[in-house]
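Work Package 3 (structural annotation) set out to generate three-dimensional models for the target panel prioritized at the project kickoff. During this period the team completed the workflow that converts sequence records into discrete structure tokens, so that structures can be stored uniformly alongside our sequence database. As a representative example, we reproduce one entry of 276 residues exactly as it appears in the project archive.
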Amino acid sequence: MPEPANSGGWARWRDLTRILTARNLKIRYKGSALGFFWSLLTPATTIAMYAIFAGILKFAKGQNYLPFLVTGILVWGFTAGTLNDSLFAIAGNANLVKKVWFPRVILPLTTALANAVNFALTLAPLLLYLALDGVLDLSHALWLLPAAFFHLALCVGIACLVSTLNVFFRDTQHIVGVGQLAWFFLTPVFYRPAMQVEAAAHVFPGGWAGLAYLHPMTGGLAMYRRGLMGGDPQLVIVPPGISPWWIAASCAMCLATLVIGLVALRRGDRSFGDAL
């Protein structure tokens, strides 16, 4: 459906964005007795399970490894949740898309925003755990601002791209299922970035191992961990011998994903009605 000539600016659609974001949050816990309390209980349970089994299996080796791990797991949850929910952000709203004109970007955007709100709630049990473990260090909390900004940009871009592809190629949901697992293992969630850099050094010798930071989640996780746990920046942000400026590569990839997603959605918008 073509855009009406008097469609106005983005401010006109602010209420729709808020309503759809709230709807997505309510759907997540529809019929649940505990409702939004699960946003706190789920990360708390995740932390407890990793703490118990890491101790039993002697998996938590190295200083502050368990806080390092659970921080990565919860941050990854934002990305994974957006990736899964965005599959039907457009395809699941076929009647709305075919009958009413509005900026289609609102659908994947509200999917990402709903997951962002859920992620913000998970930070409460994470902060409590880090404080109880004695590793919470907010002296570098400003790192959390770019971490959150670029992470949200990445998730919006992913949501736009995946939701558009799933309208035209229904195999997308199966590809996402397999690809998400591969992406998880390629992300330094349970291993330190130094291992990723070492692997990259075999592919890109001659001082170009920092290209590992072209993975958008590599820099993002580093910034989150720096903001929440402090620590030596040469160990938390980048391994020794790697320029901190490689963090900018991760940030640039987040923005590139956003641009690619927006372009894909805009081009697909022309045929959404026919495909749905």
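The mean pLDDT is 84.
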